[in-house]
Amino acid sequence: MAFLFNKFQDAVRILAKSPTFARYRRKLQFEDDINLLFMYTSYNRLGKNADEADAEEIIDVASKASFTDQQMQVQENVHFQIKNFCTVMDEILLPGSAVPMTRPIKRAELSLRLKDSIGYSLDVKPSQIPHNEASQGLYLNGEANVGAVIAIYPGVIYSPSYYPYIPGYPRVDARNRYLITRYDGIAIDAQPWGYGGEAREIWDSSTMQETRPDTDETMLGKALENSQVRCSGEILECRNPLALAHFANHPTEETVPNVMVCPYDFPLTEKDLRTYIPNISFGNAEEQKVRRLGSSWFRRGSRNSGLDDWDSDVPVLKTLVLVATEALCDEEVLLQRPLWYYSVDEDED
């Protein structure tokens, strides 16, 4: 993996000298990130029994597969981990009866139970980054392997057409440190989510005001005044121990980041998993659809499995997760802002 990463870095340095790269720098960096995510998440999916031949196969495929194919496989690999996480959450919270009631477990206890099952959970406490804007930081409690999905970015999802409804628009970043934008322009505002809640409940971004970090209720509500546009409410598990990605800080120049942002399109057809995806969409725009892989490239015993087994188009919720770029153990989660990131504010300049 390191060899291929260095190879791509060399290519980026060469391209950086050309006018073409200057014009398409964000696009090339995004493709480079997907290539790395492909390797990290594919290797993680193979599990502890992966051998050198498996790793070599991943590197070989990564050097030959198209960007689109790699992007699709990243989605499949991340979804595989999300499904496992949701299964564990069900085992902890659901009593196993026909009555749709969850156990009355506090967030702190649920976090510890999750750690016992998957090896890690998350804590929010003062950051060790020496910067006056760092304040709270995100910490991994336990151990996570490279390629693990360690956190989900919660909150309200805005497509570009709904940017004017983001609280504080057009200078949305000025008072909100919990807003992030995907490469495709989808913005996610985690400020309404805050630290989450203590129950599974209908969430429409107005249910947890008392737990929001740095909340300005006037700012948050202004965008919705006299408007017919609203967030569609969903029953979400507000105790979700991994819905804390927005507390990850950026490292200093002397510190190496240990996670990277990964776009994740959650298929809304997975209704049994929906409650554990801590996001809702703003507005009534038609849900976007993508073609989703129906099989893994690296199924054990089927090295030549390909992209032939596809599902039909499915509606998705465009979210973000954080993926470990190295093995982590009881440490602060540090996120390098990708070069393809841009502020919603910049769209107005």
TrEMBL record:
InterPro entries: SETD9 (IPR040415). It comes from the Eukaryota. This is SET domain-containing protein.
